Amino acid sequence: MDNKNKIKFEKKDFEAKIIVVDDDKEFCSIIKQYLERDLHQIKIASDANKALNILDKWNCDIIITDIRLKGMDGIELMKQVFNKYNNPPKFIHMTCYSKLYSYFNLVELGSSDFIQKPFEIDVLLARVHKLVKEIRLEEKISMANNELENAMYKNKLFINQTPLAYIEWDNDMNVTEWNPAAEKIFGFKKEEAVANNMFDKISSTSKKVIKSQKSNIVLNKTRDGREIYCEWNNTPLVEKNKSIIGLSSIVQDVTEFYNLQQLQEKTFLELKENHRILDDNYKLAAQVFANIVKKEKLSHPNIRYILSPMETACGDMIFAKTRPEGGLYAFLGDFAGHGLRAALGAIPVISSFENLASSNKDLPDIIYHINDLLKEILPVGLFLAACFVYYDDKNKCLSIWNGGIPDAIIVGKNGGIKARIPSSHLAIGITASKNIDVSLETFDVSKGDRLYIYSDGIIELFNLEGEMFGQDRFESIFDNNYNPENIMETIKDSLDAHSKGTSPSDDITLLEILCT
Fold first, then answer.
1. CATH fold for the domain made of 293-514
2. Among 26, 179, 188, 353, which one has the highest count of C-beta atoms within 10 angstroms of its own C-beta?
3. Shortest CA distance to 455 belongs to which of 339, 315, 329?
4. Are 113 and 127 in contact (CB under 8 A)?
């Protein structure tokens, strides 16, 4: 698509008015602080009625509300807002009681998102950013649709008010009637046309076409020599005795429409060719990405993985590199979004990680460097959730940094989760390196232990009923008849069985590191 036709966003488009509803003042204060850093305007309400009072005086874009509130709950608040306002704000619901509320049911009622407490603040920030973008996109599409409707209405009004030429002919094609619109279209006065054979003067086609009762667009001539395209609709003039005495023609100058149609056909062919070129370039970019992340670079006796992109190109990535001084570097990354847009960001990350690992850089230095790189090159809204790992095989120790990736887990030789490593840091590329905590979590491990790192595409994989695969279902695989040799196949089979009949909405990635 031509860049001129793309919907463009400015920085101010991502600034929103938000009401946070929760009876926990400290919790609200923390959320307010972080949202205001993203330039959002925030108002706090401790219950639903106060939120309604604020909304009466302050139009907002989003309401972030706990479901359980004193008095009216967050679901009833949403219903009242939807009933009261023609253009209500979007809702993000929060709750600690996820088993009592279904994400699917909340969405059916109109909620835009659902977050289980407790949650990482960067998760909320990302969800809010995504929702604000959706709101602004809806606004821009609505504005474009209104402009289109107005343009179509004016065009229709113009056509309806433009008189059509009306011409009557006798059987010898001499004109018997020639109205003012015919004068305007063809340039001949009525007195010049009537009783004369005007056919050769205004037509560049055969009389058979003009006499046809079918609607035809033909090339015509005007008095001043111009060529125009006109649509002709003809009806025989029949006497009571059924004898044909002539022909009536209703004529409309459709030159502009005809030229536009030709332009559309030409544009369609050009768009088709551009689409082919874009598709070729997309596949080429995906191949470049695949060449950079070659399978042999992940060929290591301690490494197994699943990498299943949603589209041709993948926004998730995994990489492993043996450290020259010994030990193993590895990481799993998940760019915001998926497809080519996300995959392009992966290319400099992998190249940088490989170079730094080869230079014996420590993990904190690697994290700082990659964050600085992405902060410089990535547009606003595109960031990298990542988990970095260093395995010291001599001392049997894992050092882990998790920024925005679901809980990594260490599984014992015979099954069972020995340790869980949740995300405790911001994703990469969001803030300057000076604001990033690069402290590592370290774990002593035994021979046969395995570390599993995975993207949210696994736990957020939906089935036909709208149910997510979920963290609990995923972790249960490591407790039920755990077989480390076949565990990757077991995970694949579980994911396939859960999502049968659906298409993944995100890239699916899993990395296993065996401790030897």
1. Phosphatase 2c; domain 1 (3.60.40)
2. 353
3. 315
4. yes
